[in-house]
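From the shared-data thread, chain only:
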Amino acid sequence: MEEIWKEIKGYEGYYKVSNFGNVKSLRRKIMTSKGHYHTVNSRVMVLKKDTNGYSSVILSKNQITNQFRVHRLVADAFIPNVENLKCVNHIDGNKKNNKVENLEWVTHSENSRHSVKIGLTQKKDNSGVNNPRSRVNDSIVILIRNDFNNGLSHGELMKKYNLPSSTISNIKLKKTWTHV
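Structure, as tokens:
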């Protein structure tokens, strides 16, 4: 496959990105901080890894610098985004593989599901004690179920444990705390 270069939107005449995931700075004259001009030769740029492990590059124009993720630059240049989707997914899960055939536009939820499907992340279990807003633990759930089985009413359970009706219902019906 041939490496194809396209201008980076907003940086035309300054930088190009390729379908292989490379970025190059174009030959041009730049002004130094002392107000002098000098010529910068065209070169393929060294990519850096950002804090999340993605290949990134710093682009500069008119003495303003911005950091960009390379997969995003490749997708913007080579993959039509007719549905105006917000995320670029690495199909093989490799954040360093920024070739155009490894990228696709997706929704946030599609990106998350893909990450779980290929084993990059685990589906979060926010039930029971794993829920950061949980007001009960396993031992309280056992007490509530025992009290319910011994005849305490729904209202009495709410008062005794100072919990909302929905929490008591979900515990009684085993919609939550199913492992206890």
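The mean pLDDT is 91.
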